[in-house]
Amino acid sequence: MSRFDTYFLMNEEDVFDYVQEKIHFFPEGTRAVCKEIGDGNLNYVFRVADETGKKSIVVKQAGSTLRISKDMTLPTDRGRIEAQILGIQGELSPGLVPKVYLYDETMCAIIMEDMTGHEMMRTGLGKHHIYPEFAEHISTFLVNSLLLTSDVVIGHKEKKELVRSFINPELCEITEDLVFSEPYLNYNERNQVYPPNQAFVEEEIYGDKELHLEAAKLKFGFMNDAQSLIHGDLHTGSVFINEKHTFVFDPEFAFYGPMGYDIGNVLANLLFGWCNGDATIPSSTEKAAFCGWCLDSIRDIVDKFIEKYNKAFDRHVKDKMAKTEGFKEYYLEKILADTAGTTGLELIRRIVGMAKVKDLTSIEDENKRLRAERICLTVAKEVIKKRDMFQNGEAYMKTIRKAVEAFGVGESVLPVKKSILDYDTVALDEKERALVIIDQTKLPGQIKILSLTEIEDIWNAIYLLQVRGAPAIGVAAAIGIYLESEKIKGKLQGSRNFEPFYREFKKAKDYLDSSRPTAVNLSWALNRMEQVVLSNKEKTVDEIVSLLHDEAVLIREEDIEVCRQIGEYGLSLVKPGDGLLTHCNAGQLATVRYGTATAPMYLGQERGYHFKIYADETRPLLQGARLTSFELFDAGMDVTLLCDNMSATAMRNGWINAVFTGCDRVAANGDTANKIGTSMVALVAKRYHIPVYICAPTSTIDMDTLTGDQIKIEQRKPEEVTQMWYEKPMAPEGVKVFNPAFDVTDHDLIAGIITEYGIARPPYKESLKEIFVKKAIAKTVKKVIKEL
């Protein structure tokens, strides 16, 4: 009979004999060294190695009481769940989870692969080590282990069996007490608050009833949302790591719960690492490197998770209803909200509760520790209370930056500020063959990037104003029709026959063209793409599709130069310090870069003109409030937001020197269709002798439309007026609504039409023709130069 046939808690002297008896891992006569290396609050972890250190193994044993409190007992067979979970996670994320050699039910011990060459991540962060691949590895692990164990992917009966197999009530109760409850109410009187921070905690945590309510909501979500098989305790003590590789282990708290719980724990613990580096690294260079990496990792983990989730969802989704349009996005938004909430819970419980982290407790300077804790608690409250707003990595950066600034920046390394201008409004993702856009319906509260591969999704994005502004719509349509031509080519399976390709191309082109009738750039770009097809009938389908790709890229590149030229001409019409009014959004968000109406403003900012910008809010969709004021303010300009009915007062007060707007279509006589309300602005401007300039790429000038009376004006849904942006309807049910998207500004109200080839002045029938002559000459010159 072996002494290991009855449970007892092993020490370092016992473990080598245990390993040899159970799996005979080491050759006979090996002299081994055993060391207890556990860093957690529950279990004992031993590493056994031969004298050379080249051959080693790990034994993890569950004790009957918690290491942090002998008063808290647990069943010792909890290792069974952990061993099974490691097996499942190892299959889903090969190479990111250590191998399990044996689970011993009697000794409640796991014998597993030694993660030799790795260090516990919390220990490494304490030494301010940087792990360049961590965000890549952990985001892969999170997507694979979470999404692939959810109802979205696996059969519902199978999933329910897994829920039953991995019910983990004792450890869940610890989480429910230590994470969700005690830090707020301290009913067991086990909280351990750093004494100098007591008053701050009492006011900001114990005394914040709104925070308690949100924590309660998160607690009941944790207890009732059996979403996926979560690790349950994924902090930096559950990761072994080096510069090139990552292991995730220690999933003894695993059960079926909300995905965001695992993701949020990772993010919070990286912020603890930042706090330690910020407080203790003396070298400004080393601090910048380490703290910058911590912040980049927080941002990258969120953004990489989103990117990988979208791909994994499309690849693995099984449930028929989960394939419903919009469900993928809805499901992700909930995961990300839970992630933010958990981030806050973890930050609070490690400061207020009984289970501490060395990242903070090892900060010896009292003032620096106080500051670190208060930064974390401030971030925590924001991400818990406003968790629905944290839908990308940049949202965390803004909140961390704000919290750090609240307690004095000093020598702290702040998140690199990323403005809306750092994102592409519309672009082609060559690798994924996708149209990438900013979802402008989510602005300014959330910067959400959409990656669209299906023509139906691109049509919807244009119609629903997720991409908007005539130039941006044109670029999106060009990229969209190219992407669809790739699909058509694939369906034809290498056929060289032009006619079937063109037939399908024409269907797709007409379909996209139906999404927005007023913006001429849409049809202009699609017609230009069609001309590429018709001009190359003799070529193979492969060659035509390649030419379509090049044309779409060229249309995008041209838009940047067009906007810059409009900016240069527009800048010549104003002087430093002028007050400029704009209506709707003809900014960078409506183009690829610079915008049209805002191009003079951006160039003026580059050259120190210090304009005072006034932006109409632009009812009913508030593009001026949500988009123009957002992007100009984010760019650091002096911008004032006006309700639409306030611009006359601003003009009468003498604040406005010129009006710049974009346009969606210009008729041959100079009549201009732009966002509803533009003509009203122009009428008032004429009364006060203020020039109105229309910024119009030549692609928006339609010489076949003789006057504005011939421009078809899109009618939008009445709900945009009566309900959108309000908590409840603000008009009588059933009242008639007139909701045109655009109006026509008569040519006699316009002082000039600014194009990339110069400024057209009245009479426009002649001056616009001259603009197109200049365009033709420039095109010919470019062609000759290219040929030479």
Total strands: the figure is 26
Percent of residues in beta strands: 5-15%
The largest sheet has its strands arranged as 18-17-16-19-22-25-26
Instruction: Give the mean pLDDT.
Output: 94
Give me some keywords for this one.
single chain; 788 residues; seven-stranded mixed beta sheet; five-stranded antiparallel beta sheet; 26 helices
Explain how this protein is built.
Helices cover 47% and strands 13% of the residues. It is α+β, with helices and mostly antiparallel strands and 788 residues long. Strands 18-17-16-19-22-25-26 form a seven-stranded mixed sheet. It has a five-stranded antiparallel sheet with strand order 1-2-3-7-6, sandwiched between helices. Strand 10 and strand 11 form a beta hairpin. The longest helix has 33 residues, at 284-316. The relative contact order is 0.06.
List the helices and strands and how they pair.
Layout: H1 12-23, E1 32-36, E2 44-50, E3 56-61, E4 65-66, E5 69-73, H2 79-92, E6 100-104, E7 109-113, E8 119-120, H3 121-126, H4 134-147, H5 156-165, H6 169-178, H7 182-185, H8 198-206, H9 209-224, E9 228-230, E10 239-241, E11 246-248, E12 255-257, H10 260-280, H11 284-316, H12 327-352, H13 358-361, H14 366-385, H15 393-406, E13 426-429, E14 434-438, E15 449-452, H16 455-463, H17 470-492, H18 498-513, H19 520-534, H20 541-571, E16 579-582, H21 599-606, E17 612-616, H22 623-634, E18 638-642, H23 647-652, E19 658-661, E20 665-667, E21 672-675, H24 678-687, E22 692-695, E23 701-702, H25 719-722, E24 742-745, E25 752-755, E26 758-760, H26 764-787
Helix pairs in contact: 4-11, 10-11, 10-12, 10-14, 11-15, 12-14, 14-15, 17-18, 17-19, 17-20, 18-19, 19-20, 20-21
